[in-house]
Structures are given as C-alpha cells and as structure tokens.
Amino acid sequence: MFKRVLIANRGEIALRIIRACRELGIEAVCVYSSADKGGPWLEQADRAICIGPGPSKESYLKIERIIAAAEVSHAEAIHPGYGFLSENAHFAEVCRASGFEFIGPSPEAMNALGDKVNCKRLARKTGTPVFPGTEDAIEDIEEAVKVAAEIQYPVIVKARAGGGGRGMRVARDEAELRTGIESARQEAAAAFGDGGVYVEKFLENARHFEVQTIGDKHGHAVHLYERDCSSQRRHQKLIEEAPAPGVDPKKRDRVCESAATLIREAKYSGAATVEFLMDRQQNFYMLEVNTRVQVEHPVTEMITGVDIVKTGIRVAAGEELPFTQKDIHINGHAIEVRINAEDPDRGFMPQAGLIETYAAPGGPGVRIDSHARAGYRIPPNYDSMIGKLIVHAPDRATCIERLKGALREFKIGPVKTTIPLHLKLLDHPDFRAGSHDIHYVERWLKEIAVTAKV
Ligand code: ADP
C-alpha cells in the first residue's frame, strides 16, 4: 500500500479522500490555491502545499505545479477526485511518466471510454445498449441526413469530446439537422478543440440511470448497481438515489452486467460510471462513461456497504478487488441531495461569503459529506456545492421522510442554499411516485415562476 498520497482537489471530495487515506494508514498531502487558504479540510491533511492563486487554471489545473508538489512531498500516488484534472488523460500520462501512480484508470482506458465515439464503438461490441445513430463522427452531412431519416426525428447532434452539455443540438427535421450540425461543430471546436460531432436518436421524457462499476488491474470488474439521477437542472444533478425506483429487476441486472463487461473489456481499473437514459418501457441507451469517482458515489456506498474511495485507492496500489459480483447486494434505499450555496429564488445565483450559522442534522442513517462549517468563507472561484446530505433507510418512502427531517434540521446561514428547494422537490408528486423524468425539475420551476407572477 502507498505510504503517502497527494490529493489534487479541494473541498468535500478532498476531505472524503483524506478520510479514506486515514483508514488505510496513508498520509494525505493536499494542494490548495490561495483562495482556499485556511480551508477546513486542509487541517485534516498531514501536509498542505499552496500551488498558486485562486483561478483553477493557475492552481488546480496546473499540472506542473501538482507534480512539483508530489515531488517535494515524496508522495507515491495522486488522487484527482472529480472535476479539475480527473478526466484528463494527458495528466494521467504525466503522472505515470513522472513516477506517480494515478489513482484512476490508465490513460489508455480513459481514452477508450472517455471519448464518446470510441466508447460507443466498444459498447456495441460488448452488448452495452447504445442509442441508434451514426457509427462514427460525421464526415459527410448527407450521411447524417440519411441516418436521421432511418432512426426518425427527433435526433440529437452531440460533440464527441463533449462535456457539461455543450455542443449538443436537438433537431426535429432535416433543416434543423443541417444547421444543428454546423453550429454544434463550431461550438465543439471552440470548447474542446475537437469539432467532431455525431447524431443519435433523441429520447423525450427519459430517466437518468447510471451504473457504478469498479475494476482492478487483474482483469476483474464488477458493478455496484445503479443510481437514478433524474432530478436535474441545466444538466446538473440535484438529487441522486439508489436503487432506481420501479425498475424491473431482470432488466436492471442485464444493464448493470453489461456496464461491468464494458469496463472489463476496456481493461479499466478504478471507479467508473456508465450513464444511461431509460425510456418509459425501460429500454436503456448509454450516454457516456465518467472515468472517475462521482459526486453521488455515497448513495451506492450506503446501499452496498462498499467503500468506493478506499477500494479505488487499493486497486491503484495493485490489490485485487476484495469482492466478486456475487458478494454485492442492495440493502435498503439511499438518497443524496446536493447542498449548493445558491439562491433558488434568484435564478440560482451563486452565494460566496461567510457561513455564520451551520447546524448539521444527525440521527440514524444520516451522513454528511461536507467541508463547510460556521466561520468558513466560501470563495467565489469554484463550484457552489458546499456539501452533500445522504440518508439511508430500509425503503424509499422512509428514506424520503428521513431526508425531509434532516433537511429541516440543517441550518445554514446567512448564505442561501438549495435546502428549501430540496424540501419542495421531495414532495413533488412525480418524484414521490418515482415517475419523474429528467425535465420535471425545470418544468416545475417554470410553473412556480408563472404562479409567482400572478
Ligand atoms: P455531457 O457530457 O455534455 O454532459 P451527455 O451525453 O452526458 O453530455 O448528455 C447530457 C444530457 O443531455 C443528458 O443528461 C440528457 O439530459 C441530454 N441528452 C443527451 N443525449 C440525449 C438523447 N439522445 N436523448 C435525450 N436527451 C439526451
């Protein structure tokens, strides 16, 4: 096992990794930007090294400074967390070339699954269900027009290097497809330096269903079942739960197993999430693979008892997975809500500034992954998530009630947070029935905006 790990991240995920390191007897070294000086998680690290000013480009994204910090602290491995450099194959490559173990997949496996076109190609081979659409990035618009006519409109044009919902265009007829391809190409070239786009069937009223998988360097890979993350606003997840409500167990097993096969075939080691959209008939279509640990990993930890972060570190150190597929069972239900410092009443405006009040909930089945506390000043430089509240209970109905109770106990001020919004969403009839889709939050936000004006 490693003696010392460098954490190339900040906030709650840095703290989560520090906790995992501590349990494994590993020293944790954190890097931080000057905007994060005094950040509460840094107190828990064995060592903290400033790598630059607030803007991420000058610190958390600056590869040479992170490598230098790993060198001076004599770390053996680097954990990228999520966001920042976590899905950057070049960074994984530089870590390897500099003699540090990257806690995550090899750059080869990351490229095989992180590039949407490559990934779709491999998925077709392994029997992981994909959207009908073009086989490859589009060279010829006429070919795309032909494919769209075959699979029927609506279709969606997507960037092969895509991320954050950019470079996507929905087309409901041929004219929209032609202009959509042009504008998606331009947007993708500007955003990702790669103008490659492809076309697939557009699904209305889908649910977001994602499978947690984990592999080791010895050719083993298992799935840890799924999460439903259909509560989204602008493609950002707000609420995540496991298992997905109301899914046929046989269909679930089939799609989860296909996800494990996909990452096994990619010779993938570490945690990966295979994202799908699910239609009303419970057909699945792969969206993409996230080649890192995800924000919402705790709900899976709660229902399976597997510590995903610790297991990720173990497999990076060369250990075999300590379990096989038959050891993994679903126990109860878990829901996570993201506590963002945003004002839902003012267009979700991010709220930087001092947290004066912070009173956290407790009780059975209540878990908080957060770096925030009273006296913490939220810097304006990074994303607005200040923590996650995760609740576990024997069944979904109890879980929702327990979560509502915990949200009522949770007092954070004067900065505004998404706590009041979550209380309303958890009472939304579609969410309660488990019949919600990926658009219900935005539909509901529009409705209440209209009512408020009356
Ligand atoms: P990104 O990597 O930019 O986040 P994704 O492929 O994950 O792109 O898609 C982002 C979101 O766009 C999905 O969560 C879903 O809401 C929507 N979307 C993408 N592809 C489709 C599709 N074929 N049909 C319907 N919605 C889609």
Describe the sheet with the most strands.
8 strands, antiparallel
3D shape: globular
Strand content: 25-35%
Q: What is the helix fraction of residues, given as a range?
A: 25-40%
Low-confidence stretches: none
Bound molecules: adenosine-5'-diphosphate
Class based on secondary structure composition and strand pairing: alpha+beta
Question: How many distinct helices?
Answer: 14
Strand order of the largest sheet: 13-12-9-10-11-14-21-19
Average pLDDT reading: 96
The value of Rg in angstroms is: 22 Å
The CA-CA distance between the termini, in Å, is 63 Å
Number of strands: 22
Account of the 3D structure:
- It is a single chain.
- The chain is of the alpha+beta class.
- Helices cover 34% and strands 26% of the residues.
- It has 14 helices and 22 strands.
- The protein has helices at residues 11-23, 63-72, 89-97, 107-114, 116-126, 141-151, 174-192, 249-265, 297-304, 308-316, 396-409, 419-425, 429-433, 440-453, and strands spanning 4-7, 27-33, 47-52, 77-79, 101-102, 155-159, 169-171, 197-201, 207-215, 221-233, 236-242, 270-278, 284-290, 333-340, 342-343, 349-350, 353-354, 357-359, 366-370, 377-378, 385-393, 411-413.
- Strands 13-12-9-10-11-14-21-19 form an eight-stranded antiparallel sheet, sandwiched between helices. A five-stranded parallel sheet has the order 3-2-1-4-5. Strands 7-6-8 form a three-stranded antiparallel sheet.
- Strand 15 (342-343) and strand 16 form a beta hairpin.
- It is globular.
- The mean pLDDT is 96.
- The structure holds adenosine-5'-diphosphate.
- Residues 131, 156, 158, 162-166, 168, 200-203, 206, 208, 235, 275, 277, 287-288, 438 line the site of adenosine-5'-diphosphate (ADP).
